[in-house]
Amino acid sequence: MNLSLIILTALLLAPLAALNAAETTNVQLDGGRCLKVNGKPFFPIGMYAANVPDFPMLAEAGFNTVHAYGWEHQANAKIPEWGKEYLDAAQQHGLKALVGLNRSEIVEKQYANSVRRIEMFRDHPALLAWHTMDEPGAGTKDAKQFNADLYMPAIYQTIKQHDPQHPVTAVLCQFVNHKRFTASLDIHQADYYPIPPIPAGNFIGTGFAGITGHAQYARKACDGQKPSWFVCQFFDYALTRKDKNIPPEWHGFPTQEELRTMSYTAVAAGARGIFYYSLSAMRQYVREGGSADEYWRRVSSVARELHDLSSVLTAETPETFSQKDNVVALIKSDGRDLYIIAANYERKPTKTVLRVPGIVNATAQMVFGEGTAPVIEGKLTLNLNSIESRVYRIPK
Questions:
Q1: Distances (CA, A) of 236 to 230, 281, 287, 325
Q2: Residue 15 pLDDT > 50
Q3: 20 to 30 Å CA-CA from 159: which of 44, 130, 349, 358?
Q4: What is the CATH classification number for the domain harbouring 280?
């Protein structure tokens, strides 16, 4: 190639290179607060097991983040085309994506394909974070699970070596895992599926108290310097345990109020993102005779509320957290009005009194639904039903 042609080619490609550089998403950690995406705080509202055909309805419902197991299960040779299609479609619909790696290779500490994938997609504008593993170290009978203390730090360092610009996350299912793996994560995720309260050592009570437990353990593990996301149950637990004799009362898909209170319990406990597991699990329930429209209506209604509260949840304003009387609450301003998010996480009614900083006497207006509650001498008294959550606003 002669010099003139080289110069001409460089001139033609320069604008395209500049465009690609400008489109690359810059994701930053901000201590224990929300991520910052291109300089703006970002509160993920995400769905697990979501594929390209699902993107329009997810975006319309207020979701902004997606995950797919195709990243783990597709053959490495198919990932370039499949992954580009997935991320391009996410970008087209205004969605960010968690990008996974080949988990079996991670466990075996074989990282050549992981490095190729990282280098292939690290500049894609839809990339939010790298998702390394699901429930590492949870198994006690699988010998490979014991290697988690080796492969989790190793894959974290591998990712950071090849892409220091995007955070690393994984889902932890046991309280002790937060301390065990915090050095291998930039963002803690936790799943806690309490419907029904199947007897197990890692469940707390009959309600959603375990959600607050995960928040506390995650915060303690990293001294409050890393954000945590919570994964809510969006499936019938009994359908995952067909090999066992499941009592009829254990069957059930989460109600809208259960989905709502799981979400607000996590938010009021300090979660900086909410995810739901999962679209594929919902469809499994539909195959068993459930209603896709009804279950989608439930989760999309909650997602829309979170979307509408994004300006509050991402505001860089002082926060007041409280937990008493089986109620967890967050009091926070969006920079103008004051908001109160309160959730009764137990399956019995309760009464609680919240101190509202900076307010003496005022009327709190319910945001989603009708009703008001008085703030008298700086105190808000709430009578909450079993597994009930409310959002109030006190206008400036």
A1: 18, 8, 12, 29
A2: no
A3: 44
A4: 3.20.20.80
